[in-house]
Amino acid sequence: PAARRERIAALDWEAFEADVAACTACGLCRSRNRVVPGVGDRRAEWLFVGEGPGAEEDAKGEPFVGQAGKLLDSMLAALGMRRDANVYIANVVKCRPPNNREPMKDEVDACLPYLLRQLAALRPRVIVCLGKVALNNLLGTSHSMGRIRGQLLSFNGIPLVPTYHPAFILHKKDKEEISKAKWEVWEDMQKVLALIPGKRP
Ligand code: URA
Ligand code: SF4
Fold first, then answer.
1. Coil, strand, or helix at residue 23?
2. What pLDDT, on a 0 to 100 scale, did the predictor assign at position 200?
3. N or C: which end of the chain has fewer CB within 10 A?
């Protein structure tokens, strides 16, 4: 595993994508249709990290292209941003967990070298963790998003802003709860904007 981590850490973007496409390091390789390495601007200042691909992502090979992705895109649009400009979007696991279950620890452990490679290549000015699975797997914590959001955290010296996963908002039934959660995500994004004054696409 250490040799694999080092090998992955040395890959350039092209080799990285080929490596992910051929990866069989965890059981998720058996049920995936396509790997979903990530999408966006390789010079991005903002890195969004989600949990793992769903059905649409698995079919298309691109993160956040289903319902949750539409909500993420509209949030980005409201901020005057786009998924392909100054933003990069990735997940903690690059292959879809069957039936959209949470990725298991051994799967996250096997896949994390790829996210770390992306982080080292991008050197984003901020990491936005979408949901507690991304947050807790990156930090090795067990925070509840409702309690931790609003705080400014950090990962390897990079400011980390935790916020709700768009799917968490979509699963809510109560209209007031939905607007409250959307408002809270908006507040979290204002925090990101305050961290990164100036350059917007
Ligand atoms: N949910 C995620 O966490 N990631 C995706 O890419 C899509 C949905
Ligand atoms: Fe490899 Fe990650 Fe896919 Fe597992 S989830 S097979 S570690 S790319």
1. coil
2. 56
3. N
Pairwise CA distance, residues 127 & 48, whole Å: 6
Assess whether pLDDT exceeds 70 at residue 201.
no
Ligand 2, atom nearest to 32 Cα: 3
Q: How many CA atoms lie within 13 A of 106 on its CB side?
A: 6
Among 55-59, 151-155, 192-196, name the one with the lowest average pLDDT: 192-196
3 alpha carbon – ligand 2 mean position (Å): 16
Q: Tokens at residue 141, please?
A: 């914590």
Q: Ligand 1, residues 35, 47, 48, 57: which to mutate, most atoms within 8 A of Cβ? A: 57
By DSSP bridging, strand 87-91 and strand 39-40 are: antiparallel
The answer, yes or no, to whether residue 1 has pLDDT greater than 90, is no
* Contact status, residue 129 vs residue 160, Cβ threshold 8 Å: yes
Mean pLDDT on 98-116: 97
